[in-house]
Design brief:
Strand content: under 5%
Distance between the termini: 53 Å
Number of strands: 0
Shape: elongated
Mean pLDDT: 83
Low-confidence stretches: none
Helix content: 55-70%
Largest sheet: none
Length: 60
Amino acid sequence: MARLFDNPMVLVIILLAIVLLFGTPRLPGLARSLGQSLRIFRSEVHQMNQDDQPGSSASR
């Protein structure tokens, strides 16, 4: 079974489908909101990791 991204033409087709579905004016807004969501997710994961460490003030 072939891998999805072995052929660069597959990536071109996927990007073309995204542009056709969402249109070029909405793509920057979608990318911006995706970036903000990832930043929030990373900060929450980082905070959870700090809370799980021994000696943290949250466990007292």
